[in-house]
Amino acid sequence: MIFAIIIGMSLATMIPRIIPAFIVDKLRFRDWVNRWLNAIPFAALGALVFPGILTVTPDKPHISIIGGLTAVVLAYLGAHVILVVIGAIVTVFILST
Amino acid sequence: MEQMDIKQHRSQRVMMLRRGMTVGIPIMLGYLPIAITYGVLAKQAGMSLVELTFMSILVYAGASQFMAANMIAVGAGAMEIIIATFVLNFRHFVMSLSFTNRLRSVGINWKAPLTLGLTDESFAVSSMHTKEPGMDKGGYFYAGIFITAYISWIVGSFLGGVLGEVIPENLSQSMGIALYAMFIGLIVPTVKKELKVGLIVIIAMLINTLCMELFHMSSGWAIVIGTVFGGFFGIFLLEEEQA
Q1: For B55-110, how does the pLDDT look when each residue is reduced to its tens digit (9 = 90+)?
Q2: Does residue B148 belong to any structural domain of this protein?
Q3: Which of B20, B27, B31, B99 could join B141 via S-S bond, C-beta 3.0 to 4.6 A?
């Protein structure tokens, strides 16, 4: 039974992922479509970060915000992504214990 | 002469693969604790070690797997779980469109398998590297990122299922910020260079928040709408060459 669920879920995630590979090969997009598609990563990053970040510390959302701001500052100062990640983890850890 | 040529090709492949794997390390850092937590939760939901590991191999979608484990625990129907998975992961359709459009120079024999490894995180990291599709053996670079992420997810799930909660709870909660911090770490350098990009990011955040708070949409649809409509502003804000 669980395996049937896994196969069904697998199709539900694979099909939307793979279809664009075949669509894109067949089509030439207009300029504005290309600009839209190029902006998708930035929009996706925005939508993925907020308000999702608040759920990291659900009962104390301000801690998540401070963790996020720490990441912004570190990244702004030019720190490597790994350092940005570790800095945010340490901040949240210190504030929540 | 020919032999040297083959050798050179091989080293270019290995080099691109290694570079991709290095770029994928932050994803690994973020995936391991989450995958372990998933493994623990799935075990508690009554799934066997084989089942929960296979789910990571075949479904490979974090949020959906957490949801599925919860739904299995409360005895939800199979169809219900599958439809919820589709809704939650539909955003990958939009991301895949953007991803494959950028990889036009890469053949379908590479593109199609790569799309199966698309997640929020692998998409975000690979989208910030826009020069590689034009490079020799560029496909290997993306393969490096995707393989690192995929393996971390599977290994983490398995470990969670076998060992239980190996990471103390307060540390594991703090590690929940990792992927968000990675997203921030990816976006800030671009915004610093091009302020207009920051506007797209903020608009997408606002649309997403509005969809959830005002219209009470599920987070799956809210992210799709935030991404699609936030991206529309890029049509006016970005030049052809950018991004």
Answers
A1: 999 999 988 999 999 999 988 999 999 999 999 999 999 999 999 999 988 889 99
A2: yes
A3: B20
Q: Is residue B186 part of a domain?
A: no
- With CA atoms as reference, the chain B residue closest to A24 would be B101
Whether residues B221 and B153 fall in one domain: no
Please count the other Cβ atoms lying within 10 Å of the Cβ belonging to residue B173. Answer: 20
Helix or strand run (H / E) with residue B27: helix B2-44
Predicted confidence (pLDDT) at residue B243 exceeds the cutoff of 60: no
Spans of all domains in chain A: 1-48, 50-97
Rg (CA), chain A: 19
CB atoms within 10 A of CB B53: 21
Closest chain B residue to A48, measured at CA: B223
Is the Cβ pair A9, B85 closer than 8 Å?
yes
Taking contacts as CB-CB distances below 8 angstroms, the residues of chain B near A32 are: 235
Q: With 60 as the cut, is the pLDDT of residue B2 above it?
A: no
Q: What is the mean pLDDT of residues B142-164?
A: 95
What is the DSSP annotation of B144-203?
HHHHHHHHHHHHHHHHHHHH---S-HHHHHHHTTHHHHHHHHHHHHHHHH-HHHHHHHHH
Q: How far is A33 from chain B, CA to nearest CA, in Å?
A: 8
Contact check, Cβ <8 Å, B111/A19: no
Q: Please tell me the distance in Å from B7's CA to the nearest CA on chain A.
A: 31
pLDDT tens column, B214-239: 988 888 889 999 999 999 999 998 87
Asked if residue B227 and residue B135 are part of one domain, the reply reads no
Element (H, E) at A5: helix A2-26
Please check whether residue B182 lies inside any domain of the structure: no
Range of the domain at B6: 2-175
Choose, out of A1, A40, A70, A72, the residue to mutate when testing the contact with B (most B CBs < 10 Å).
A40
Residue B188 above 50 pLDDT?
Answer: yes
Decide if B231 and A43 are in contact by the 8 Å CB cutoff: yes
Q: Which chain A residues are closer than 8 Å to B226 by Cβ?
A: 43, 46-47
Percent of chain B with pLDDT over 90: 72
